[in-house]
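Exercise (ungraded).
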Amino acid sequence: MFAASLYIIVCSARNRARARLRRLREPRYFIGAIVGAAYMYFSFFGRLRSARSSAARDSARARGTGDPALAAGPALVAAGPALAGISLLVVTVVSWLAPFDSGLLDFSDAEVEFLFPAPVSRRQLLIHRMLRSQIGLLFGAIILGIAVPSPYGFGRLRMGVAMWFLLVTGKVYFTGVSLARARLRSASARTRRVAWLPVAVLTAAIAIVASAIARAFLAAPPSSVRRALQLLSEVSLQPLPRIVLWPFAAITSPLFLSSAPAGAYLAALAGSAVVLALSTAWVLKSDEAFQDAAAEAAQRRKRQPQGQLAVSYRTRSAGWTLAPTGRPEAAFAWKAAMQTLRVVDKRGLARFVAILFVLTLAATSVGREGPAATLGAFAIAAALFAILMAPQILRVDMRQDLRHLELLKTWPVKSSAVVRGELLWPGVFLTAIAWTMIAVAMTLSGTVMPKVGLGWRLGGGGAIAIVAPALVFAQLTIQNAVALVFPAWVPLGNQRPRGLDAMGQRLIMLGGTWLSLVVMALPGALAGAIIWYALGRFLGPAVLVPAAAVCTVTIALEVLLATEALGPAYEQLDLMAVERDEQ
Amino acid sequence: MAIAVEHFSRTYATSGGDFTAVNDLSFDVASGEIVGLIGPNGAGKTTTLRSLAGILRPTSGRVRIDGHDIIEDPLEAKRRLAFMPDEPHLFEYLTVDEHLRLVARLYGVTDFARRSAVLIEELELKGKEQSLPGELSRGMRQKVIIACGLVREATTLLFDEPLTGLDPLGIRRMRETIVARGRAGAAILLSSHLLHLVEEICTRVIIMDRGNKIADGTVEELRARADLAEAGSNLEQIFLRVTGQRDPSGQM
């Protein structure tokens, strides 16, 4: 079976590489590949040069000035594995409550049809899947190794290896969780008892660590995020939590030793290898639940169109029943609203949590202490994100519906109404989020910007609130225009095409959207500037409001004209031009 | 004529050059007629149906539905049309009831509640009204597509392999539904590989091969043509003969 696995892996990789090279004949992929390669080159070598020079600068400064921020570096490195270990423990617990899809049990249709009836044991099938996942994991580890801000190539290699251990262990562990959950439902009482064992161990582990953290936090409540992290680090060094956290710290510690002496790095790597070996042994021992878990994964995969990320929906009452009569745009908005409110997208949720985390970090880095200032800064960051970035991320519009073009095209709806209907819900939804965040930011603006006067704060907040829908709808119009005019450039639905060329295409799209937004906003900005110049001396900060209103009206007119102009593009759009199965 | 197709051609651009899927096709379907469109794989049946439904644009020629050109007057033409494709592509996030509601809204169906209840009963979707497509079998999803097509008062019905995925009872019901709609005056064009079904319910048959129409008439008329059939031939034998395929029984 090992030879057969290697044969499948080599043939698949070779054919995939051939297909990628073949598609470079198409200009869009060729241009995308050039842009992607240029991005990789400059981000890698650019980072390498700047990292080297900043490392030299830092060491000179640390020698000369004794900067405490720089001096804090080693302390953070020492606390890193412990903090990462606590985070991993939390992820591990969460994976039992809401299992992650490791993908290891997601056998392709061909694998099911060829390998399942073959005289191959369950363990061999699991090992086959583990081997097959290696190419993706190695690629991920290399990319993360390149991305790390290390001045030395060898440090990047070390980081890559450490990352590979972490990724493989994660994949194997999450598979183990899926198998163990299937065993919990076994008819045999003995199997169920054995399956509960890791749950009991994990519950004890989380109880020990959580009680130690609670004691530490109650004894000295942290005044800032930095202090909280420091407390967590101290807790992880206490005797009992340290033992409990060992496997979690062991798998992450090589990540923090990429520039440590070789002996220390190799010792840490040995610890990671032990954890990986234990996880693998646990999974291979749980193989009796393999069929149930694989069947569950197959069911999940069957519900998804090919080449799409796992997004599932659950029937939820949204409190909005479509009226039998009315404008077609409202029907499209209702349809998109149902999609948004019913989605169960774990990856999307993970991305959302990551964005919240980054926004919170950005908010805390403003420098002002206190929850009100932090919340205010967070609201500002979130509002800007909702206005400027979210229209490119929330794809509940033509970008999703091109998959259903065959159905849409049969409907007796004016094409410009289809385009407007597709924009309506995401525009309203994002505007509502932006307005909520702006309201919070304005309420707390006194703590975030105490030196700015009330008039300017109110005027500025009001102006942003007025301009927000125009900017959101303008970006959605641009994105949907590209989907209609150049459908092959747009990943449909939840597709995430891979490869350097696809990455280049995404970069071109992002740059193009921003450039188009600037061009679209220019007339409105000019009109607003004229109002500012004419009325500024009479109205003071309040002039921002009429200036923003004029700007918004101008952009809104442009959006309306654009949707009318896009009508013929929708009519002309040929089903065959829409790539259905780009992977 | 409910459906009028004149010199319709459709060409696809492929990496190996242009490929003509349908070449200079002309035919009519009158109200109350049930016309079967048959042909081997790649004959151009689905391309023809999709072009009639306004999904694909003809490369040349004209398609009219109740006198309305599908390109020049698409809204009026589509209002009269119902297309039931072979692959049931539904919105994954809308329930069965919501699919019907959405279609009713877009087509301006006034007595939605009554029509929906009748169809749910007729197509055996009772109890599945609040189900999402992901919770339904392929056959059930096919029934939802058909229900969406029938919920409005369409004068022209296009079926592409309407029986795929249905169980024997479902096939029987669907056959009755199609015949009933034909008797009620709808013009029906259906594509199917189930030749005994076509022979049984269709008033006329069009045979296509490699994008060309090679025969058009009632089964009796086709039987009567010496170049198409021997005496006593059934539709399957006629089909195999005109498409140049070998009959498994050994006859050409």
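Further reading is listed at the end of the chapter. For now, observe: Residues 500-539 of chain A form the longest helix (40 residues). Chain A has two domains: 73-303, 328-577.
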